């Protein structure tokens, strides 16, 4: 009857509404759907007396994908009234559906995320396909938004404030059907081909169904702020949230919390209004735009996936240390046979144990099968037939040359040769092999099984075919690639080095260490800068400095690092002591010696300068990477910075940070010059930035 919603009425007088947007591969809350929903609701109301119930389902692989991000990403503050009105309009349609006076059941055949779950929540009963690929949840918060079509209001009323916040709203969890059932978000999990029968059976048994919260006397589970016992706990909510966000400037969790708590104290219609206002504030703000953009950039990067059809079957992982062991695990998990080679079989066995440990914690994976794919060895002859080599031995060019020389004639004659080096030029390493065209950088991030990014590095001699095959490896491992050209530190190591470098410089200038740590956390970095430096170890910047030789520009941070290592014996976490203390191996407080030896009481760097020195240092270095051709796309910079090196997600990525800075590119340039005048020439805006600003362009 409409373009996006099919109307089928059976002999049982149940109307089955099948959502099937002809214009897209998934159903979304776009204008066409909302208009069709209104037509359908009008007709349901008109024909209500002849109908026994309604089933809502979908003809797509997923049930419903949620909001129309294309549209939401482009809404400015001047459209606030329209956004609010359309959010309220959609809510009124869903409210009319749930107060139709007939039972309405959602037959959730596939994932119901965001708007999809909101639609399902407006039904009286939810039956979900028993398929572990199905995801139920509200990912809005990860895009800087909140579910603005009744999602906050209904989950709070169904689950209670605390449960709704913790299990679905604040962290954007995607729940598998069994978990959604356990959480009380859905009512039944059933085989996909039984969904319709189950829905109809429920309708037959519940002809007078209404929502629980529409029954007189209904109480929100767990209580509301109107009750003394609940009110006494209320101050803990914002405190917990602040702790979790570590002071980072994410507005969505704050608005979700406010909408949930305020909405629980009023009637349903007022709660919808409150939710609508908080939603509008987020949609029209800058941070949601940044985060939605990052989502699209991610898709763009993920689409650069290599065209080779033959998956890799047998990989030689050279080096079974921290990285090699973890790379072996992800390769085995992706179905490859893995030869894990170290200098002794014992060392290689230890590397395999890493996989055993991870798998022991994941009973839902076929652990034994995965483990059986990993063969530890010390003998290069065992690598015969490998079509892929991933090297992860110590960061030493001579050693890397040696291990490639040892294996290159043993593995398959066209095997792809990859190095996981984080700092050495790929072209330099390629010098050590005869097939330089097949040599490519494949830079993983630690912990490899959790970090989604792989930086693929093209050396001077790397062929397009090899690059394509390397992207194929990343696709096979289900990770996201960025492609960069060869240069010392590539993109990620080079840019993160400017972040840690700025933290170290501030410490060397005499800024109090706790302030530096707070500045980085409150800027939105996932780890405080000195804590991160401890993880990376202080010997790393020293090694890099030595590798540069005469080309290194000395900084006051050099002496600070030397003193920390040589005078105080504090090289970082792995050495048992660094900027922090590690009693029993666990990070505790900042080392009090920092105050005594480095802090200078008269030094006063404004807090916002501390934050922006770190953010600007990374953004400016990224512009240089783009200008030098190390980066070839803005998407790679934004995705790589968020997924690989912890650039704050609220910014939308390291180059989007410049676009969205107050005053756009000219505003960013003015501020760069201010920072340059105060803190050093490294903040002078590079030529590419000036050119773009002059031409009125952005980084897109
Ligand atoms: P690691 O010290 O934990 O492991 C290196 C392993 O290589 C050791 O087990 C060692 O026994 C083995 N090895 C040495 N000589 C060998 C040989 N001839 N044949 C086979 N194995 C040999 O080091 P790691 O942290 O795993 O780093 C390995 C590589 O990965 C380095 O190039 C490093 O720059 C890079 N990388 C590290 C990280 C990280 O976070 N640690 C991240 C990305 C890339």
Task: Note the topology.
Layout: E1 5-9, E2 14-19, H1 31-47, E3 53-58, H2 69-72, H3 80-98, E4 104-108, E5 112-113, H4 115-121, E6 125-129, E7 136-137, H5 151-159, H6 161-169, E8 174-175, H7 177-183, E9 188-190, H8 195-205, H9 228-233, H10 236-245, H11 251-263, H12 268-283, H13 286-303, E10 314-318, H14 322-333, E11 337-341, H15 345-360, H16 367-372, E12 374-377, E13 388-391, H17 397-407, E14 416-419, H18 426-430, E15 439-444, E16 453-458, H19 464-476, E17 480-485, H20 492-509, H21 513-522, H22 529-536, H23 539-548, H24 556-567, H25 593-597, H26 607-627, H27 634-645, H28 656-660, H29 664-679, H30 687-694
Parallel strand pairs: 2-3, 3-4, 4-6, 5-7, 6-9, 10-11, 10-13, 11-12, 13-14, 14-15, 16-17
Antiparallel strand pairs: 1-2, 7-8, 15-16
Helix pairs in contact: 1-3, 3-12, 5-6, 6-11, 11-12, 13-27, 14-15, 20-22, 20-24, 20-26, 20-27, 21-26, 23-24
Architecture overview:
With 700 residues, this protein is of the alpha/beta class. Helix content is 48%, strand content 11%. The protein is built from 30 helices and 17 strands. Helix 18 (426-430) links the parallel strand 14 (416-419) and strand 15. Helix 14 (322-333) crosses helix 15 (345-360) and helix 20 packs across helix 27. The longest helix is centred in the last third of the chain and has 21 residues, at 607-627. The radius of gyration is 28 Å and the shape is globular. The two termini are 41 Å apart. 48% of the residues are buried. The model has no long low-confidence stretch (mean pLDDT 95). Bound molecules: nicotinamide-adenine-dinucleotide. Nicotinamide-adenine-dinucleotide (NAD) binds at residues 318-324, 341-343, 347, 392-395, 399, 403, 420-422, 443-444, 446. Residues 318-324, 341-343, 347, 392-395, 399, 403, 420-422, 443-444, 446 line the site of nicotinamide-adenine-dinucleotide.
